[in-house]
Amino acid sequence: MAMRMRLVYALMIVAVLAGTVWLRVADPVFLQALRSLAFDTYQRLQPSSYNDNTAVRIVAIDDESLDRIGPWPWPGEVMAALLADVADRGAAIVAFDVPFPHGDDEAFAATVAASPSVLPVVLTNLPTDDPVPPAKASFVFSGDDPLPYMPSFANVATNGPALDAAAAGLGAITRPTSGDGVFRRLPLVSRIGSTILPALALEVMRVAQGADSYTLTASADGGAWSFGRPPGITGIAVGDVAVPTDPDGGMRLDLRPANPAAHVPAWQVLEGTDDGATIAGRIVIVGLTAAAHADFRSTPLEASITRVELQAEAIEHILSGRTVTRPGHALVIEIGVVVVVGLLFAWLLPRLRLVAGVAASIVAIAGIAVAGWFAYRDLGLVFDPTWPVLSVWVLAALAALLLHRRLEARRAEIRAAFGGALSPAAIDAVMVRPDRLVLGGETRELTVLFCQIRNFAAITEQLEPRDLVAFVNRIYAATSDAILAHHGTIARNMGDSLLAFWNAPLDDEEHAANACRAAAAVLRDMRGIDAGLGDGAIPGEESAWEAVGIGVATGNCVVGNLGGGERFDYTAIGDDVGLAARLESLSRFYGVGMVVGEATVDAMTEPRILELDLVRVRGRRRPLRLFTTVEAIDADAPTLDQLAPIHAAMIACFRNRDWDGAEAALHDCRAFGVRGLTTFYSLYRTRIATFREIAPSDDWDGADATTLQ
Questions:
Q1: What are the CB-based long-range contacts (under 8 Å, 24+) for 559-562?
Q2: Which pTM was predicted?
Q3: 49-58, 229-238, 262-271: which has the highest mean pLDDT?
Q4: Quick one: three-class SS letters along 371-392?
Q5: Which of 32, 299, 320, 447 has the fewest CB atoms in 10 Å of its CB?
Q6: Are 553 and 481 within 8 A, CB to CB?
Q7: Rounded Cα gap, residues 577 and 548, in angstroms
Q8: C-alpha span between 46 and 322 (Å, rounded)
Q9: CA 437 to chain CA mean position, Å
Q10: What are the residues facing 186 on neighbouring strands?
């Protein structure tokens, strides 16, 4: 059963890990959405802030500018005047975020040609009549051909041949590439057929540096690090600027909230009322911010932001030198994390308690999420925390479910094994930690109690079957209640006898004392056991409280589920189990209710005992000292306290061959009139008289000559 459960558990772990890896490789839409959500969360946790010293400024064609200058679109002479005024104020480069579909104004074209300007072209898959404009810069490939990896469009909307030819640069603008329409990434390069067009922000960087080419690095084979996926484009360089990219040539932006207060209104530039120093030496982007005409986008930080603001943020991001990229080997790292953490959990969870297992799962999930955050914040690396977290959560949940079922099966096994052997409270204690229970067998130090009904054959002959059953049940009920009340385990009930032990399956530091307390409780309950059974109910016995005899021994025993076929019992085997039964057989010989072995007394912290004898036990070299507890003697405590030192002196004199001293001490002991020791003292009176007549041998060590079988 246990082997089958372990096999099922191992197969489940392998299946879950394989399934999660396959799911990540397949990359369904919901996983992509979760990754976007994680990146959005990173952006919100630590957005960039606007820097007043940034090299980028926006000249905004806002609502007030339209009110002052006129409705949009403005004629060519107004745009020419605006461009000239911006250039006159010392702008390093002027870029337009607004396209000019019919840009045939010669004055505007001449102004564009006279200043370092970058115009936009709009990439689209809708039909247009515009030809692809000639490239303003060349593209150099490092490594493999990057064309297969970059976004592809069917057509382009240009500004007209005159304007496009006059501009120092042409940069592409596109709609958001994510399925939910949220702007997170900027495609730095796109293509129409085999013609590559740089993004507007990238083209601004080229023109600002006076560069005439781009270098695109790509690889068609990422090897093991890409887990079978080609990483595509890994970086784009222009002039002194190198930008790491995602495999499709896109750049993830470190976004900031919009800052309209930093915009320079176009009407102020045209009327000369602006602060010229704001524009001097900076990259200026001219764009629409008027509510009725601007192109608004949504970002993880804001529901609505103008496209020109995003173009400015993209240039600021490139100039800052901060990179936010997803490395080509990110997937293999994520898969490795899931596999390693999954296998660790598979090994660890069965060894933990439920609360600890839940805590470990929470720590692992939180650790993955926090590691992803620090990688983004400190290293600019974008790893997906959502799929590993989801995978670990599913793995932990399924493992917990299977372990719960295994725990329930274990608890059912415990109930079957201990239903009548332990008290309900003890069974509950075992179920708290069923993993500590070793039903297959283990060696433990046990204190064993063997209890037997005396003269059982004569009782069975005298009592009617119904009375016999009632008699045995009353004795068994009293005995089992006392044992369970003192934390014992009932191993066997054989009708006329009962075997119990302590310190298994639950640990019991006071197992010897608890066994003796249980035995004393049994003897107390036996004193009225014959009530209602009629005269002579227990033939051959002088009093009902002597109805049972008890032997108690302590030692190492093997304990576990023993049996065959469908019948198993949690019980103990070992030499001391048999010793307890042999000690019980001596209880009637000494006339006491209980005989306790020497090892049991040694295991008790404050034993209240009377020594009985020193006997030889077959199979043991050293004689065994036997005791009974004062609780097992029918006398009050003050009497026993006075009796104990005289009793010990009698035993000592006897073993020292001081017959006179032993006889005198014995006389004093008998004077106390303790009925439970009458037989015992008669035995020693006979022994003393015998040794007076026949002296023991010279090597006699005080042990009884009879060997305990």
A1: 559/441, 559/442, 559/443, 559/444, 559/446, 559/501, 559/504, 559/505, 560/438, 560/439, 560/440, 560/441, 560/442, 561/417, 561/439, 561/440, 561/441
A2: 0.59
A3: 262-271
A4: HHHHHHHHHCECCCCHHHHHHH
A5: 320
A6: no
A7: 18
A8: 14
A9: 23
A10: 251
